Amino acid sequence: MAVKSEPRNAGRRIITQEEAEAIAAKARPDQPPPVRKSRIKLTRREALAYALVGSTALTLATAGATLVQPDPSTDPFLSKFTPAVIQENVPGGFAYPRFKEGEFGGTFTLAKKAADYTTADPPDLNPTGKFYIVKVDQPVETAEGVVAQQGIQAIYQVCTHLGCLIPFQAAENRFICPCHGSTFERNSDYVRGPAARNLDQFVIEVAQDGTITVDTGQRRTGAPA
Ligand code: FES
Fold it and tell me: Which residue minimizes the CA distance to atom 4 of ligand 1?
């Protein structure tokens, strides 16, 4: 009589993967549990579809932002970063940084009026704006023309050689750079040293009543020596 063979796993319970891991963890309590790999797998076609949807959404968002371009002067966030002149005159100007009145990069309205300065005074340093106000008989031209008004110049405090802050030496009546010795006249003209041009100047506005406004966002290059 033929003997009927039993199936190989007869009488045994098939355990799940989680149960197997739990048993293994109990057997080796000193070892951390195995890290499970993510079961999310994308086919190449699905990945391409997601990429296409993402790029389309980005394009639409950019186009929408352009169409409804906010007015930066009234926007509470953008108004902090956009100079008024750029907001008014340059499309997309809200992308530019904004400088406030009285901080370097912005405009400075000075307490002293034009009549308070004489051609004998030493240059008057504004350390925040990094410029000297100086009254001269004959304004010095920059490479872009004359920017002085009523004989008042705003001279940038930075040496035109390698950028050291340049002090005015009253005893010499000249600007003398402490770094490599470039020397400039009181009116910004180059005298000697490794610098290759006059000191730079900022655009200045002198109103009818003598109020002086210096725009440190508009620097004019000193003329070549
Ligand atoms: S940085 Fe002024 S002379 Fe060199």
Answer: 180
